[in-house]
Design a protein that fits this description.
Helix content: 25-40%
Distance between the termini: 20 Å
Radius of gyration: 23 Å
CATH class of the domain at 4-80 and 251-333 and 480-538: Alpha Beta
CATH architecture of the domain at 4-80 and 251-333 and 480-538: 3-Layer(bba) Sandwich
Number of strands: 20
Shape: globular
Length: about 550
């Protein structure tokens, strides 16, 4: 007897697991298929070297919707967040440093070392971002309305859908209206460039560059490019373990979150199969009928894809099954990326010249460590990449999860997690081979050594993931960690393409439930949650 699932989900990343659990709560019979041997997508814990547990790709959590954490009872399934305090440490070559964290008075003293006026301005800046984020966050928890006057040949929508879109648009209008006199600055943050915004608020280059690096996470843009201001808001959004705006480490590595989501889904009746590569999405006319795995057909009334739009529509679906205009729109999606991830196993903590001490973790080790200060430094790193070159002096965000979670490495040893900008997907001088990876590693270590000279000689093992490696390992087109870049023209009702922002697709029964859809990238879970609600609305 052939089993027909109510829904087959392609990819067991965190959004796919959230979607699966939501559907199962509604009584759906759900199957999740994962190509790799572990669940989590890019939100995983691997053991590349004996005794070292590494968050291979994604490395901190904050954006996860608190309602997901609550409704799925993730704590009961082993999910625990270890908050970072302080949140960031920026060493300088002149012997000073900047520590930022949750304590306002401590932040004032730290910033005042560089600028008294910045120390006064910083609380106002953070308060503004928090006010904007608080009003916009609800927008993330519902599908984006399709407001564009697209022709019926592009997509036909019923009266009920149009009414819902008007309601969603009105909610956004009210949220923006609630901002009052903050609205002009909110619009600039949503659409403008990070650098002029920060230049207007602050004078200290150390503070500006510390904040600015947050604006270019996962992008192939300089801090002076329009759209980079939006990512500044990400860093005051969400919660970690119930604490708003706090970024933290997941106990046991990021796989701890994915494993908890998987456990919650399985408890609800979801079936998860790993080591299964979906070869094709089957259709009958304009209707999805299931998927093919290892030559075997699996019947399903609905299919939800947790992989990106390019992989979904250009690899798994026959081009003839899709409207020509839609295919062209998918082909226009920007997957530009210049992000790399380097994981290091070391036998001692970094010993910073400006803040000595490495026998035990100190405040300088617990948060994000910003290597490469100054806005001109950040711009120069981008200019190299624009020419197809690995940045001569890369931008490095270093975290040391073992500073708060000693279970991740053998006693006395540590993990250094390096998120690196800029490493172009396409190099002008040749492919991403072992020599190119070594070049990137050496340049990152050289930069770190300017501040902590003991680090290069402390390295026991290394893992270098270029954008090409991120693509191969995690199925991320172009190595883009957000399943598509996040400038304004690829956000909200324009994501993944205009007219299809509600997780549905031109194929009846096929949905997008991953970061390719609104609201986009980050370990948030909103994409999966929203997709499940829309599928339930459509019925089995």
């Amino acid at each position: 007897m052939t089993t027909t699932f109510d829904c087959v989900i392609i990819g067991a990343g965190h959004n796919g697991l959230v979607c699966a659990a939501g559907l199962a709560d509604a009584g759906w019979r759900v199957l999740v298929l994962e190509r790799r041997d572990i669940v989590g997508g890019a939100c995983v814990t691997d053991e590349p070297w004996p005794g070292f547990k590494v968050s291979t790709a994604s490395y901190v959590v904050s954006l996860l919707l608190p309602e997901i954490e609550r409704d799925l009872e993730l704590a009961r399934h082993g999910y625990r967040v270890l908050p970072r305090n302080p949140s960031s440490f920026t060493p300088t070559e002149d012997g000073r440093w900047l520590l930022l964290g949750p304590d306002d008075e401590s932040n004032r003293r730290e910033i005042a070392k560089f600028s008294e006026s910045d120390a006064e301005a910083f609380p106002r800046y953070e308060a503004l971002l928090e006010r904007i984020a608080e009003r916009l966050e609800p927008v993330l928890s519902r599908p984006a309305p399709n407001l564009l006057p697209l022709p019926g040949s592009w997509r036909r929508r019923g009266l009920f859908s149009k009414i819902r879109d008007v309601g969603s648009a009105w909610s956004l209008h009210q949220a923006l209206g609630d901002l009052g006199e903050d609205l002009p600055e909110a619009i600039e943050l949503l659409t403008g460039a990070a650098r002029p915004i920060l230049d207007r608020w602050f004078e200290s280059d150390v503070l500006k560059s510390t904040l600015a690096t947050d604006a270019i996470i996962g992008t192939f843009q300089p801090i002076s490019a329009p759209g980079t201001g939006y990512v500044l808001l990400h860093h005051v959004m969400g919660s970690a373990g119930g604490a708003r705006g706090v970024w933290g480490y997941v106990e046991g590595g990021m796989g701890g979150l994915s494993n908890a989501l998987a456990a919650a889904a399985v408890e609800r009746g979801v079936e998860i199969r790993t080591g299964c590569t979906v070869e094709q999405i089957e259709t009958d006319g304009n209707r999805v009928t299931g998927v093919i795995v290892d030559g075997t057909s699996i019947a399903a009334r609905r299919v939800a894809s947790n992989i990106d739009a390019h992989q979904t529509f250009r690899r798994l679906v026959s081009e003839s099954a899709l409207p020509d205009g839609f295919v062209r729109a998918v082909d226009r999606i920007d997957y530009a990326s210049a992000s790399a991830k380097i994981n290091l196993a070391v036998d001692q903590l970094p010993d910073f010249l400006c803040c000595p001490g490495h026998e035990e973790p100190g405040p300088q080790h617990r948060g994000t460590i910003h290597i490469g200060t100054g806005c001109e430094y950040l711009e120069a790193a981008y200019n190299d990449a624009r020419q197809g070159q690995i940045s001569q002096r890369p931008i490095v965000e270093m975290t040391i999860p073992t500073s708060v979670d000693s279970t991740l490495a053998p006693r006395g040893q540590h993990i250094l997690s390096l998120f690196v900008q800029y490493a172009p997907y396409q190099l002008a001088d040749g492919p991403w081979d072992d020599m190119a990876r070594k070049t990137l590693l050496d340049r990152c270590l050289d930069e770190i050594a300017r501040y902590a000279p003991n680090v290069p000689d402390s390295v026991l093992h290394h893992q270098v993931l270029s954008p090409v490696d991120l693509e191969r390992t995690f199925g991320l087109t172009g190595g883009n960690i957000f399943q598509g870049a996040m400038p304004l023209h690829q956000l909200f009702n324009l994501r993944p393409v205009p007219g299809w922002a509600d997780h549905r697709t031109p194929l009846d029964g096929l949905y997008l439930c991953g970061s390719a859809a609104h609201p986009g990238g980050g370990v948030m879970g909103a994409c999966g949650r929203n997709a499940a609600r829309e599928m339930i609305r459509d019925g089995r």
